Sequence to fold (243 residues):
Amino acid sequence: MASLAEKRMEDAEDHSVDQTPDQSARPEELRLLEALLFASAEPIDQATLAKRMPDGVDVKAALAQLQAEYAPRGVNLVRVANKWTFRTAGDLSWLMTRESTETRRLSRAAIEVLAIIAYHQPVTRAEIEEIRGVITSKGTLDVLLETGWIRPRGRRKTPGRPLTFGTTEAFLSQFSLEALGDLPGLEELKGTGLLDSRLPSGFSVPTPSDDVALREDEDPLEAGDNLELLLAPAAEPEEGSGS
Fold:
């Protein structure tokens, strides 16, 4: 007859076995998605993931399940610009901060121009200046182009064929936006104090579009376009010159 101590040890072993999670209950497609997403240096869109998965897998549902699994963890599955990637949980971002990191602040002019491009794209330099009411320097656009947050889209089908500008996936990634439609609207901007609550009647904030296709009033960029020349300010007439 087994002693009381032996009986307790047997019960403890049985209990530990019962508590072992059943790995076979977890769908195999979740393991495959984990492997693909961890191995990729860049975010991956759903269509690309679907091509690597076995036939019959509901990739959208699997991604949603995987996202739910990782929600309470130190690494989260997030969607940026309609692509999926693993990122450190937002509340743990302080762990990644280094004392040597230097934050470069955008000028007020650059922030204004970036906001106008985000909400009004595709938009030309002249249209930006009309909205702001001041001349936009080439340096302001240069800074935004260097960040990779804006890009030349095409040329407007108007005299002079000016460049049109739009935002990039890097812009969405930087500000943790799934889509441009996630940008704050009029009421949200008022609530945060970024807009005066006493606005002129009829004032509205446009709804930004994610459509990367050129519009009817845009021509594609040409291979020989020189961005430096295209962004250069127009030459002013010299004093005393004839009209």
